[in-house]
Fold:
Amino acid sequence: GAGVSQSPSNKVTEKGKDVELRCDPISGHTALYWYRQSLGQGLEFLIYFQGNSAPDKSGLPSDRFSAERTGGSVSTLTIQRTQQEDSAVYLCASSLSPGLAGDVSYNEQFFGPGTRLTVL
Amino acid sequence: AQSVTQPDIHITVSEGASLELRCNYSYGATPYLFWYVQSPGQGLQLLLKYFSGDTLVQGIKGFEAEFKRSQSSFNLRKPSVHWSDAAEYFCAVDATSGTYKYIFGTGTRLKVLA
Structure:
């Protein structure tokens, strides 16, 4: 079946512009995650959506970053007034409803190919 | 604070040689540990995971990893590397059991010589 898809694959923007990055999770996956992968850095957790619960936004680096998930499926990550330090690969992942690893409901995260954002 | 260290940024091995990629973590409780592989232009693919039980975990593509609590390590191994294994490998820890905020290492880039 189809995996996690992200669009665009590449985005070049000028400093100060707003950008929107899109993620289509695997059908039926209730959990959705955004990560950022900067040059020379590991992957940094940004935000987590689970069903209709309030998202965990604890990883968002500033109030210029926001994300929404419409209808429990597609998610959009928005970066306002982009800065050069926002240049990175933004990865989206989805999973089935997470649970404790001791039971069968714990599910791995499936990652999309990412969106490479370049801020000039 | 939890952290994951992959001390080798780059590793080069010859095809057919054995491979070990190192991963150390700093975490107080029983961790959930993962190894992912990222090929150029691709998303991350899960190779294997450890939650509890047998400390030697088998994964896909012939990879295995061993959890050593005394050394806070979760090293990835493969007995014979194939050219197609050239990629970047990430070790990750589930930051707080059940919250799914993975903490990733900075990755090890593997080059395979023919």
Summary: The interface with chain B takes residues 3-4, 31, 33, 35, 40-45, 48, 56, 58-59, 91, 93, 95, 98-102, 106, 108-114 of chain A (CB under 8 Å). Chain A has a mean pLDDT of 88. Chain A is about 0% helix and 45% strand.
